Amino acid sequence: PHAFPFPTVLDSPSMRDVVIIGSGPAGLTAAIYAARANLAPLLIEGWQSGGQLITTTEVENYPGFAKGIMGPELMKDMRTQAGRFGTEFLTADVTAVNFAQRPFTLTVDGEQTIYTQTVIIATGASAIPIGLKNESRLTGHGVSTCATCDGFFSKGKELLVVGGGDSALEEAIFLTKFATKVSLVHRRDTLRASKIMQDRALHNEKISFIWNTVVEDILGSEVVTGARLKNVVTGKISEVPCAGIFVAIGHRPNTSLFAGQVDMDEKGYIRTYRGTTTNVPGVFAAGDVQDSTYRQAVTAAGSGCMAAIDAERFLESQH
Ligand code: FAD
């Protein structure tokens, strides 16, 4: 289901200067810049029109919105802004790419072929969920995958963090600035995280550890009120009250489509060099798809701007 009532037919020629893949903050900002540079970009939106922020409620850290803004509204406005300068939208998925030679070819929904001189990859990343029905239902209502985004709402509350790697510990430590107590639920009895992060977490008096344990269910009708836990060694079930659950078991960049076409790191993030350039001249990457560190709307938007400028300069250098 796509959230916005925009035309989705491709009525211009299928040879392009710039095609942007993805309609999150990175893709839409790239579109605003490319459109204003008169490059008539085509933006292929993908299965999640508006990107990750359409799944959230209040966004309080995007500059320019002093009172905060709802995620879907922010994305709708970004899309309108990109459209205003002539971005053409295609509400479809890219299903195959060939970057072996220019013009590059993109296959859309397994049918249509599009040729383009440059590509901006902005396909984002997804947080890996635990996989519980109540987890998706209560996302934005106490379930979160981003402490930087939602930590502030946790003032004076008791929280759970799920995971055992560096990012889980980072989230837990960050959350102790707001929460009265943070319990880290980990399915093993040792942490995967680096020694330095472990030391910091183990010495933080607000953090306690619940070892050998998985989350069986998340409790609460309107908002999170607790979790049902299962000890994987003893099989014992317990219920713990909490006001928030931060799931930090990893992120997966949306890059399977680009396997063998462009360089990626060992986790599948696209490698960028000098701004947003990849190892393939003419292919650029922006936003969470190339960033496992910051993962914010504003950093994604910033790199989308960079990618459009990089693509524009690349095209100029070809004349
Ligand atoms: P995404 O937003 O992930 O967008 C990726 C896009 O790629 C989507 O449009 C998708 O349809 C498209 N796509 C994927 N595959 C294909 C394909 N094959 N073909 C075509 N298109 C494709 N950040 C903040 O700064 N503040 C917050 O308060 C905040 N809250 C958040 C709350 C939640 C619940 C979540 C999940 C994230 C939150 N974030 C927040 C993080 C923020 O949403 C991301 O950092 C940001 O959306 C990344 O933008 P992006 O453009 O790189 O990718």
Automatic annotation (TrEMBL):
<comment type="similarity">
    <text>Belongs to the class-II pyridine nucleotide-disulfide oxidoreductase family.</text>
</comment>
<comment type="subunit">
    <text>Homodimer.</text>
</comment>
<keyword id="KW-0560">Oxidoreductase</keyword>
<keyword id="KW-0274">FAD</keyword>
<protein>
    <recommendedName>
        <fullName>Thioredoxin reductase</fullName>
        <ecNumber>1.8.1.9</ecNumber>
    </recommendedName>
</protein>
<feature type="domain" description="FAD/NAD(P)-binding">
    <location>
        <begin position="17"/>
        <end position="304"/>
    </location>
</feature>
<dbReference type="InterPro" id="IPR036188">
    <property type="entry name" value="FAD/NAD-bd_sf"/>
</dbReference>
<dbReference type="InterPro" id="IPR023753">
    <property type="entry name" value="FAD/NAD-binding_dom"/>
</dbReference>
<dbReference type="GO" id="GO:0005737">
    <property type="term" value="C:cytoplasm"/>
</dbReference>
<keyword id="KW-0285">Flavoprotein</keyword>
<dbReference type="InterPro" id="IPR050097">
    <property type="entry name" value="Ferredoxin-NADP_redctase_2"/>
</dbReference>
<dbReference type="GO" id="GO:0019430">
    <property type="term" value="P:removal of superoxide radicals"/>
</dbReference>
<dbReference type="Pfam" id="PF07992">
    <property type="entry name" value="Pyr_redox_2"/>
</dbReference>
<keyword id="KW-0676">Redox-active center</keyword>
<dbReference type="GO" id="GO:0004791">
    <property type="term" value="F:thioredoxin-disulfide reductase (NADPH) activity"/>
</dbReference>
<dbReference type="InterPro" id="IPR005982">
    <property type="entry name" value="Thioredox_Rdtase"/>
</dbReference>
